[in-house]
Amino acid sequence: MVAHKVAPALAVGAPIIVKPAPATPLSSLVLGELLAETSLPEGAWSVLTVSSEKASEMVQDPRLPVVSFTGSVPVGWAIRDRVPRKHVTLELGGNAAVVVCEDWSDEAGQDFAAERIARFSMYQAGQSCIAVQRVFLHDKHYESMRQRILSWIGMLSTGAPDDDATDVGPLIDERAAVRVEQWIDEAVAGGATVLTGGGRVGAVVEPTVIEDAPRGARVLDDEVFGPVVALCKVSSDEDAFEKVNESRFGLQAGVFTSNLQTAFRASRVLNVGGVIVGDVPSYRADQMPYGGVKDSGTGKEGVLSAMEDLTEEKVLVLTGIDVL
Exposure check for the chain: N or C terminus, fewer CB within 10 A? Predict the structure, then answer.
């Protein structure tokens, strides 16, 4: 995530100050060490592990015309409110949805979709802005997809992050894991069923699949940021698209369909920053524009998009000059 911001800044010659999250400073500092070995001019970059209070002062400093923030919704919008005259880019997460459309009935296709849903709902222990969180399955093949997803998730192992055999490691800290566990328990108290997982040992939460989560459940409405995925039955593709849009977030969505018109319709009606057809919403290539709408933020990342954020267009008009 640091590289997504630093590389475009260096490419356009824009000086940049990196302020890493308090819980994750080490990768930023290592990157700083690498940059210190280059011939970049003094002041091209800085890595400051300062407090949130000091960061707030930096954000408001008039010498810094652009703020690019990745993090929580309250902090992100507070930054934008604090500096209304600055250019601000916000990536504030989401509760990414997958739609498995009615036409996606081929067995090989269903198995591929199930494997992708299982893998990318649980990768990085769900601690990704575009981890699969909500899955809308057409009732025509709900049972088939349900069993396939459970089968794939059942193959995932939990454990220490430095163990090569581990598929799902711990959350950032035990407090985060306790919160995820509480959200699962709240959904169950409201009528949801845990099909697999739901347990916690320290900071490790078991890969968890939920169905019949009630409206208003935080595992549906908010960003879990943990290894939890909710399965939802729908009666039509249109019903699924409507339910995707009920979220206050809108980062990316995945749509499994082999029908070109359905793909175009999904792109038109889904209120998200990106629609990934034939795969999960966790797909991201560095060169593509990346960003959301609604509470997922504003602006776009991606190499070219970030370079444009950090520069201002200037027009030069030449008259009365012989250019030959």
Answer: C
At 258-286, the pLDDT tens digits run 999 999 999 999 999 999 999 999 999 99
Q: How does residue 147 score in pLDDT terms, banded at 50, 70 and 90?
A: very high
Q: Among this protein's residues, is 91 annotated catalytic?
A: yes
How high is the pLDDT of residue 52?
82
| Catalytic residue status for 101 | no
Q: Active-site residue among 33, 37, 53, 91?
A: 91
Q: Show the beta-strand stretches assigned E in 132-289.
A: 134-138, 193-196, 200-201, 204-205, 208-211, 228-234, 249-250, 252-256, 274-277
Q: Which of 101, 102, 129, 181 is catalytic?
A: 129
Evaluate whether 208 touches 228 at the Cβ level (below 8 Å). yes
- C-alpha angle 236-241-242 in degrees, rounded to nearest 5: 95
* Token output for 64: 């810094």
Q: What is the pTM of this model?
A: 0.94
Q: Of 60, 64, 53, 65, which Cα lies nearest the Cα of 79?
A: 60
**Residue closest to 244 by CA, chosen among 277, 207, 275:** 275
Listed in sequence order, the residues at least 6 apart from 192 whose beta carbon sits closer than 8 Å to its beta carbon are 210, 211, 212, 213, 214, 217, 219, 230
Q: 138 has which bridge partners?
A: 234
